[in-house]
From TrEMBL:
Compartments in which it is found: Cell membrane
Pfam families: BPD_transp_1
SUPFAM superfamilies: MetI-like
Domain of life: Bacteria
The protein's name in its UniProt record: Carbohydrate ABC transporter permease
Domain ABC transmembrane type-1: from-to ranges: 73-275
Similarity section: Belongs to the binding-protein-dependent transport system permease family.
PANTHER family in the cross-refs: ABC TRANSPORTER PERMEASE PROTEIN MG189-RELATED-RELATED (PTHR43744), POLYGALACTURONAN_RHAMNOGALACTURONAN TRANSPORT SYSTEM PERMEASE PROTEIN YTCP (PTHR43744:SF9)
Annotated membrane topology: Multi-pass membrane protein
Amino acid sequence: MKSTMEDRTFITANIGFLMAIGLVTLFPLYYVFTVSFTHPEEFISKGFVLFPESWSLLSYRYIFSTKAFINAIGVSSFLALAGTLVSLLVTSSFAYTLSRKRLKGRKVLMLLVLLTTLFQAGIIPDYLLIKQLGLMNSLWALIIPVMSSGWYILLMKGFYDSIPDALQEAATIDGCNEIGVWIRIILPLSIPSMVAFGLFFGVGYWNTFFNAMLYINDHTKWPLQMLLRNMIVDSSTSMGGSMALGNDLQLPSETIKMAAVVVATVPILMVYPFLQKHFAKGAMIGSVKE
């Protein structure tokens, strides 16, 4: 089809509009990055820097020299790794159980899972439950309440429903029990979906801070996002003020905060490219059933 002048005008205007939206979206990321690498003297003298003349790693050296930041990275790494493994184990095993048509009480379990997607107890009941379980100030308080999701279970169940029954029956004839079928047959076939859901869970655990604010009072067990939250909200925290680096040079709190934000963001950005091929395929698995 031959494009008219109106079509070309619309396409040009649309591209320009989308580019403007993209620039507005990327500007905060660019500003955070540049400020984190700006030399303290230049930032103090100018206050607002878009194109720094002198680059510096002093802010990064400072945050990595503090014990609080190193502990926070360790806590977030533990939550992302251990929490993701636990969540995948619980979600995949429960979803496979619900996909077994011969399971007694299957409809009741499905109803309970659906109810969790519609109704939630709320903050206060959750807090009282965690307190009664003795999980206050425990990192498991940040994993157990969110280790699975009814929506993720239903999506993964949809993927397991798409696997032919004949394949599972053949494994049973060869001597596999239900657990053997799940481990040897189902899990290898569900790698794309496991990677996709693992990415969802990992990002959620890495970015957790609200549950930490509720359940963790010991600052040595704060995850990275909780530490960042306190750095931004409360300037009196151990990493929130200025720091003398010799020769009367003061390290501004803004550059420290921006450097911490970059460090907290980079690990997730680095994971996405390696998992993208599995993520694009696994995100759609189970969402449509023929």
